[in-house]
Amino acid sequence: MKFNALILAGGSGNRLWPLSRASFPKQFLRLFDKNTLIQSSVERLSDLEINKINVVCNAEHKFFVTNQLKESKNLGNIIIEPISKNTAPAVALASFVSLLEEDDLPTIILPSDHVIFDKDSFTQSILNGYERANSKDIVTFGISPLSPHCGYGYIKAKEKIDKQVFHIDSFTEKPEYETALNFFNSGDYYWNSGIFLLKPSNYLHAIEKHCPEIFKACNYATNLVNFENDFIKIDEEIFSECPSESIDYAVMEKIDNGVMVPMDAQWSDIGSWKSLWEIGSKDKNSNVIKGDVITKKTKNSLIFSENNLVTTIGLDNIAIVATKDSILVMDKNDSEDVKYLVDEIKNFSRSEWEFSREVHRPWGKYDSVDSSDGFQVKRLTVNPGAKLSVQMHYKRSEHWVVVSGIARVHYESKIIDLGPNEYTYHGKEVTHALENPGDAPLILIEVQIGSYLGEDDIVRFDDIYGRTS
Q: What's the pTM?
């Protein structure tokens, strides 16, 4: 059985704020082991015969995708959505691209930010759906509910088609608790996993019939694709007219060839801090703890510290998440409301909804260690083989001190290599670039001095990542 896979990597993950930010959302984070969530999404496909893995993401995250999946031998197209329009258009774009390449294999649609602990059960469920998807059906996968969870959508199953496949009666999006409790007690409902198996031609036929506006916009947009540095860039003007809909609303609730395969694979969409607590490893007091944390008389809580010591006394059912620049404290049962808090932060014109103190870039990352009027201190980490753009600044000068690794500094046509405890300086309007020619990360301290220190005081002359000023 041969498959393609499509990883949907366009989510913002704002319900896991402050750890997940719009500029670097949860799919790129390491929450459980050495792999990020998107890396784990690809790894769980390893027991299936996968021809090609395509990815849909937005422009801001395209280099994170390539950096984190560079070890994947069957990575295919990276399709850049100019605007996020939910899952139905994303899958339509990828389906059109597949048919342009005359590739109509059954395709596993997989969110990039879910957790599945039982890989064998996941694999078997995908295999159970293959024959249906390879004919005419669109397959979705239902998770046997462990509780009356209000944060998940539900699928009601009808009669069995065979041992492992059900007809679908209805979908319900995130019900109130009493409704969820009735669903749970009935035994007829499954959590909606957001995982699908389908042939691109069958999906596009369904979209054309039931959501012709999406079909039309995605068809036109993919006819005008721009191949840019190994990315497939979708036309923004045309795609902006596309309706924003989920697969469930646009397709699954309307078709008569939708079927469901049960999947008992220890799944979670980790869509909130409560769901992260539910699947996390707990201590004797049912606390999930990560980082530098000391607790007394605390139970049933989630406490995460990215940097500083966090201490608690006398807490029950609380979530505390402390990053380098923000702290969230809440009743765990209010986890679904974090997205509204993020909206409030945005309304106050604060940057914390989008960026953390540690900002990721295609070449690595920087941490804003200190700042005040006229100066700013950053710690830069440059990945092996990476290079910052050739640039200059109108309003600031910069001092660089190498902490570890090798810094290759370009000043006009002059190139100098610096090692640990060596430094350099460039003033305003001096064209410069920085790269790491070594095999280990380059770490240096940058001190900026000037009348204005914003990131928009960068004039780029050349950039290997295709960024412009």
A: 0.89
